[in-house]
């Protein structure tokens, strides 16, 4: 299993961060994709290279501030669970954590790179430095 | 007008592959002529034995510990120093045609400029420096990419798709369904990563790189100063040269390489003397890095497979030499020859059967570390041809290019310009060359640091998954040119070992921490 974790400390309240990170339909605002579409518990994300990933939304837990999804019906991805957490840092600010566990193992590294990029961008959005 | 620079690189080429270095199979008359009329370095080492860190050293003049590309998959920072940018600031037109690989090849989110340029079929991308200045990516006015086949986001693959789509499926498919380096075999012997490729020779990436290099050179004014990096993806695996060329070398006619112990017990005894990752890769129980197929066991390699891989490699090297010849001819017709410096080298070597292994990894022996490196100074510079036996590294290239351009040594480089002779090397302190390895691929961690000095190669393994930091390798090249006898634990050689280790610790740059994230397997 390929397992990665990327994180960013963000100078804003967990509630404010969760407004964007916890909304599955706003992924394209911060993650390096072109667009996304949500219908019920399904999401489709469109990459710049033309690829489309179909995802099942597994969990949107507003109290724990955890979002989980899994890539489905994909000819390459055989196992996947993505988890995004927003955690209170105890000082009124938060830490956003993006984890992926998947097969093929090596694809987790690419998603880790995208997560790093996305978390850096969402930090700038929320801190008003973009 | 100053001296122009043609920088030619190949990928994964051994020192002994060239006629000028004792090779007897591949005909390489154009490269041999460069050596004959220039400076042939017979102990040139890379600072890392895989592509991205090694290429990053070429462009920055820094060791991996400094430039931060500590393993494949770690992108070179877009604001890292670049000798191309330095030359461009001095008025040079700059280009890189062929394999760059400063950034990951596997980039589905198009996070990196190399991928985006090819996807958008453009040849430059502007980058904003911290002071607000806009500069072309890495200082190259023109970047046009190729890699080992017709797949992926590189300009060559775009060109094949647009012009010869029927050829796409002829190349070896590099990755398997798990996106691991494929272990699929082919050819006559079922050797891994070998395929008979029906692609026309003129459409193969070697000729394409030469064609596109000439197209860029032809776009210049005859009075321009220029720095052109022509970067061939071969002879790196897959070994799938155009089938039309296979008659050049019949694998059945080849002797086995001197470094291939034909007796399995002998192979295993040699490997057993080395740190544990050697034997554990050979028997398939520990594949530490992405550069070799995960599902291939080296112990299954047959003598005929070694012969066939070597034959394919020789063929690819001949094609490269002929492509170089075409570019040199074009430079001559432009009237530039007397003012063009030509530097030829590669990023790292290849086992090609040595020790019963193929591919590469954390193995610091001549198979992977001893590189062909030739500098033919511009005839107008009146430099005397020479053979330099002193140890030098790719880390000296950036300063060398600056010196050719008449520029001071950039403050970012960590090694001086290449010496012009052994006497010059002695005067300027070329005594040692360093090589690093670090890899963390999920739970497998390997690290090592190596020094070559006074005819010895000494490697210390760092604490990791298989090693506790006490293991290492010590080879006496004068008496053991194939590095079969590891003297690390030999009490008679403890003094030289400890002296080399002290020198290594003193000379090795302190690693910049934290390590940059791994964004792809390659």
How would you characterize the overall build of this protein?
The complex is a heterodimer of chains A (130) and B (522). By secondary structure, chain A is of the alpha+beta class. Helices cover 22% and strands 43% of the residues of chain A. A 7-stranded antiparallel sheet of chain A has the order 1-7-6-5-4-3-2. The model of chain A has no long low-confidence stretch (mean pLDDT 97). Chain B has 522 residues and is of the alpha/beta class. Helix content of chain B is 27%, strand content 18%. Chain B has 14 helices and 17 strands. Chain B has helices spanning 29-37, 51-60, 64-67, 83-89, 113-119, 155-163, 205-218, 264-272, 276-282, 303-333, 366-369, 397-404, 422-427, 494-507, and strands at 4-11, 39-45, 93-98, 126-128, 134-136, 142-145, 185-186, 191-192, 226-235, 340-346, 371-376, 386-388, 392-393, 432-441, 444-453, 456-461, 472-476. In chain B, the strands form 4 sheets. In chain B, strands 1, 2, 3, 6, 9, 10, 11, 12 and 13 form a 9-stranded mixed sheet that branches. In chain B, strands 14-15-16-17 form a 4-stranded antiparallel sheet, covered by helices on one side. In chain B, strand 14 (432-441) and strand 15 form a beta hairpin. In chain B, 58% of the residues are buried. The model of chain B has no long low-confidence stretch (mean pLDDT 97). At the A-B interface, strand 1 and helix 2 of A face loops of B.
